[in-house]
């Protein structure tokens, strides 16, 4: 079943844009009192590296079974937009429980489902909200992406939903065959935070429209204010044909759906009933979360606080050569690690948005090998012809391109923040930093796809004081990891413990 804006009771011409990993399963100890982490061989997960058994949580704070408190700056991979057990979410869930209404109603209209639809439609870009339809599916991101693929295949009669990261001819695609649709993640969410530049998003929108190819935006990890806009497509003003939603849209509970323009499903049969597409508690929690984020302007708050946190992280990068770059958009932040440059010289990155603090070593040769010390030819001077850089940073959504003064030489293009990948990653450095953070009472995430990055995804409700505490602990952890690296890389030098007592929770 799909929802239209009129069915949800919201007038047309909406307001426009207002600017999993989980813990590892635990078992009982021999005494049956305190849960413990699962044994080796029971499978791997994010929590496998974190010896934390959470028993209570509120907002940013998590209390373990051992009585220690932690600041959770991963927030269920960003799915907890309001943090743990936020009062408005708990009240919405209690209201459903106390009402006696069914908790699970697949593919049927209910008051809870209609309330969720109203709140969701109120947050969408106006051009889409006026005629949007909502299609529920299974609760996972993969379920929503599969549902989007089925929708565009049925709508166009074509096959293929290629993912795009860079310039692409939407009319034909890389194979010369026009696909059923094109999928873009406005801010890729598994490593460095490098948004697709606004100009590139707009070109993609134009090319897709010209080729009659539906544009599908994956907002499963970027929606509900995470990047400083209610939806990440708002940074470029792009209005997709389909939005794929999961994660925070369920208020921290499993929920996923598609929002698409009307008419796209004209020839699409019902996908059938999925076992978990009618979770009433998730819809109530999602509606409460969307309402609270919109009314309290938490997206704008995320943009402002995230910019301040990114500034401090840039300062941290200037102090530690093993940091290859920092990047962020709103409260979606990342710190990448790589082998330090022997010369200690790196190129500063200018601009905002997703730009990192420093690019690769300014003397990097092919393959990211540092040329300091002579051996591979002359060093490359930053800004000189042949330097490994691109002007991508100038295209980020929040970084206007500065025009040179009349008669002045053109400014050298800013280095590509993605160029940090050209340097050799420091194996295990991010995991070491994560462990040092944990010893200081801070939970952070790790990048995936072999990316040596620490990820910060705090709740949008994080206070200024809590943000400072998070950064203080992270800075201490990075310094401790650097000391450990130095001592373990020097033969005969005893390894530093680097232990620190958890700081008091603000």
UniProtKB/TrEMBL annotation:
One of its GO terms (molecular function) is transaminase activity. Its EC number is 2.6.1.76. It comes from the Bacteria. Coiled coil: none annotated. Residues 1-47, 370-427, 483-506 are annotated as: Disordered. Its cofactor is pyridoxal 5'-phosphate. Keywords: Aminotransferase, Pyridoxal phosphate, Transferase. InterPro entries: Aminotrans_3, Dat, PyrdxlP-dep_Trfase, PyrdxlP-dep_Trfase_major, PyrdxlP-dep_Trfase_small. Residues 397-411 have a biased composition (Low complexity). Pathway: Amine and polyamine biosynthesis; ectoine biosynthesis; L-ectoine from L-aspartate 4-semialdehyde: step 1/3. Belongs to the class-III pyridoxal-phosphate-dependent aminotransferase family. This is Diaminobutyrate--2-oxoglutarate transaminase.
